[in-house]
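My current task is to audit a protein record that another person submitted. I have pasted the whole thing underneath without changing anything:
***
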Amino acid sequence: KTESGPRTLMNYSPNEEEVLNAIVPKYMSSIIYGGLMQALASENGARMNAMDSATNNADELIQSLGLLYNRARQGAITQELTEIVAGANAIN
C-alpha cells in the first residue's frame, strides 16, 4: 500500500491481452502435440506387445513341431530296424 491510498497495480508491457494472444495458441499446440505423441507411444507399445506375443507363440510352435518331427523320425527308424530284424530272422 502506498501512504495515500490503495495499492497501485503494476503496468506490464505488453498488456495481458497481447500476452494471452501469443501464449494460448502455443499452449494449445503443445497440448495437441503432447496428445499425439502419447498416442504414438501407446500405438508403438501395443505393437511391441503384439510382436512379443507372436514371437513367443512362434517359439512354442517351433518346439512343438520339433517334438512331433523327432517322434515321427524315431518311429520310422524303429520300424525300419524291426523290418531288418524280421528279414534276418526269416532268412535263418
Summary: The chain has a mean pLDDT of 91. The two ends are 126 Å apart (CA to CA). The helical segments are 16-91. Residues 16-91 form the longest helix (76 residues).
